[in-house]
From TrEMBL:
It comes from Parashewanella curva. This is Uncharacterized protein.
Amino acid sequence: MSNDQQAKKLPLALIKTWVWMMVESKEPQIREKGRSNLINTFGSLANANTYITEKLKQSEPVD
């Protein structure tokens, strides 16, 4: 299964949790685990950012 297919099957909440782990945690091991989960799933942090941004745009309510 490709990284893209794998990511599409993951709940957005899980991906957001990995971002939180990487950005907000005070524990270096937790920060690294969040970072490595994102990279292993998306291939890079840039790809993860693009995916999350697109998913969030799709979930915005339309006025």
